Amino acid sequence: MKKVKFFFPDSHDFVDPTFDFVNETNNEFRVIQRDDKYAHELFDSPVYDGILISKAIVEGLSGVKGRYSVAQRQRFFREGVYRFFRLPRSYETIGDCGAFSYVKEVEPPYSVEDVAEFYTNSGFTHGIAMDHIIFDYENNDVKSSKIVGERLKECLRRTELNLENASKFLKISKSEPFNPYGVAHGWNPSSFSESVTKLQKMGYDKIALGGMIPLKTRDILEILAKVSEIRKPTTQLHLLGINRLEHIPQFYSFGVTSFDSTSPLMQGLKDDKFNYHLPEHKYTSIAIPQVDGNNTMRNLIASGAIDQDLAIKLERICLDLVIQFDKGRASKEAVLEALCEYEKLYLKDAHKKTRRMLMDKVLTDKPWTACPCNICKAIGVHVMLKRGAARNRRRGFHNLFNAYNTLQKELAKISD
């Protein structure tokens, strides 16, 4: 059995495997739910051990649409999580309620019965009890707590609500096919520890620790150290939304057996500085925004701030030069000059914010040529281009590949 497992929280992340990177078009006969591929379908080896799906992502909330269309949601419930995602049974699946989606509400929008029904109907192997996030936090170093009065009252209220719901959920789950997780929240290490103690007394041997995404690593380790003082040897801990791969051996020593995170994917999509990851180094992508497909470019053109014809010309020059550079037919300096010229159009104060040095490093090292993942081997330099979902999401998938490989290396450091 693997010591620590990585679950990927899916938000309908897939790509068109037939996308034409030269003409930048999708196959005209493409049927998204039939033809598009998830990350686990694109690689020769796993990039995660399972997936986590939130009820709020699938169904949405009152007044807020989910990521699934009505047709997709119906198909999800008709087919179940494994068939919907074309996921082999060797992968595990976790359902959760999506507490981030309603964190500002006084009460969760679901009942415990609603959540359990969602897990059962979806065919998950594991289900997390309905929770309400506590974001207040103070470590043990504070001399005088600021979490007092109404703030403390709210922390205590949510804690009791979480424990009450966990108790109901555990009773319901006894007649359901999924394995239940309780959820511990807190505003300091002691309150986390107290919640874990109570969940263990209820009968939970799987406990997720939530609300820790904003915390520093030292705070997370402090919580785990405190929890380890009362954790039973059979209790397995899951870290919700935490991705600190370099600390996996320490996490494991405190009883962590799984975690989930979208960070590798989201950094590939949105990070402006280091969004292409390799084990020993992180690189910036090469931004060539689409004149007709990028909101920033469209707004600048509509306002008259930039000339559309010039933008189209520079965009095409940059794209052609990068592709020719990859083939050894253009110089690095020519590519950099063109990229920086294009930057002047869409970046305010581009002379101050230019990414020339970062892009120089990318073009010098050509990291995409050294990466063994299926994405880099299939599309080459296109994985480095910050340009539309077809490339950006593939770069996120590439990051998943490297994160999972890094996890395996960290796990190898753990002695049996």
TrEMBL record:
<dbReference type="InterPro" id="IPR053537">
    <property type="entry name" value="DNA-guanine_TGase"/>
</dbReference>
<protein>
    <recommendedName>
        <fullName>tRNA-guanine(15) transglycosylase-like domain-containing protein</fullName>
    </recommendedName>
</protein>
<dbReference type="InterPro" id="IPR036511">
    <property type="entry name" value="TGT-like_sf"/>
</dbReference>
